């Protein structure tokens, strides 16, 4: 399996693995795919340490880094003189307190103001640039930008370093805007994907994006966790696939055990696109958290990004810890971003086995198509 | 391209065309695919006339009939002694009057009580059975049941006549239930499809259904309007594809001209899953009709099926007529069922050209996959 993107990045198989877990990134890269580390969880210093860890394990094989640069953020996040926590309205704080009490989790520790500022501002263009500077000091093969078009400084710095820039999109219009802004590779992500996602399905979106941005290569994302799905994505015209959810139930994944158990038991009906974790629509496991924010009468409705992210992360850290102790209310509330493929994930495997199984089933799917078409 | 379903039904290419238009059914069947006539719009006598018309044109080539049998209907529809129109609350009638006045369409003619009863009851098991009896007098090769599991009488009559039964599903659970009820062929329909549809995308749904019901053959539906999308569906494990939206902009289609123009101009973001036309979630072009029912403050919310169908059809016939005269309010309101592929539909072609283009692009997509996989 050789596509243009395999040649360009020097990989055996055009399978991109998005993960917040360095172990998954290294395992997929070492298995012949291309690991991409989600950098949002890290400060610049932490990211530096993670990338050094990966560098030491992949023997020069290529991997990438993904930052989150939303096109629009809550204006308060741009005011460097103010503290982000000060912009969270009282009724949102009260609702979180009410939820934690109702589900028996106890009062949430408010995140410390300085930590919140640093974390919240990481999802702004300025914040992302700090992470990119760190990333470019390592031997990375790709920088990806989720949500907004890559900021001009990001493209310029990546170009200078000879590193291609990828951008995630959910519409044809955004794909064209990303290419105009300098993206070298487009990830067309369908609504079935986990995390921030649009409304158009992978089946419909990918061919339209491929035609609109040609000859820029396109990876398909959303709904891809098996070799048949990868073959389908390539039949749609994609040059490769970008998978996220499938790694969350691997042995290496950082997924909290209580969430992993919920993922393994879930069906494809158990996800929801909700603004309750970040302020923007993000597909995640449906739980009491999403139900309460999206449908309960007391809900003040989610804030914008990054304020809702601060509200949710502060509470969710506490909830996840309580869920690990088996507290039933916390188990009801706990969730995480995941796509509709969660219904296919029913066993825990090492990440490299996921790669091998995907490659092998991909071959079978292509053989079947050859046979059928005579 | 020969799959098991091609052998069983005696067709050249496993492309199923769902249409309410006999011209499309005959054209696709004559081009080597398999036309399926949606029977819901017809009384038993009308259906008889339509099928006779098709029989005279397809020279014995196979085609099918689709009836709508919801698993659950509003109980009032089952009471044969009452008039259905009597169950429509005053505030729903008032809201329709308000909408038509607001958009300058004038008062809607209320459908005649007897017509409404006949139409509304066609979507019950008893109503569907009447249509099936007519269909089985013709040389049909397939009976399809949308929404609910096929009623036992339907399966028994079709079996006796040697006609396979197909069933549309949106979840794995429903697929298993349909097979248990006697379905010979499953149509796994993703959320991106037009008309009544679930929440799971085609990319995610199809492989799960294929695995769950094997060796029963599965057709993929939703998001398929080109050869690349057909190749993708087959890569997912489908035995063929079931397309609906792509015929709506053909020369033969019965689509009202004002709606056809809106379809040709629409993007894939312009559809919505709404209960405002039938009482069940159905994907359709977003218009002032769906916006008003789903989001306006005055909206009483849609009724169940079939009552909302009566409310909507009565008004929509009037709206479509006014839209044809170019009345701007009516053009804002008018819509029709269509899938997210509407964004790909930008020219009017004869239905047989759609078939030829699909077959030809399918071949190219398989060739590309062969080349890439070496």
UniProtKB/TrEMBL annotation, chains A, B:
Alphabetical UniProt keywords: Flavoprotein, FMN, Monooxygenase, Oxidoreductase
Source domain of life: Bacteria
Extent of the signal sequence: none
Region annotation Disordered: where it falls in the sequence: 274-300
GO molecular function terms noted in the UniProt entry: nitronate monooxygenase activity
Matches recorded under InterPro entries: Aldolase_TIM (IPR013785), NMO (IPR004136)
A Pfam family assignment: NMO
PANTHER family documented for this protein: 2-NITROPROPANE DIOXYGENASE (PTHR32332), MONOOXYGENASE RV1533-RELATED (PTHR32332:SF38)
Name of the protein in its database record: Nitronate monooxygenase
Species annotation: Nonomuraea diastatica
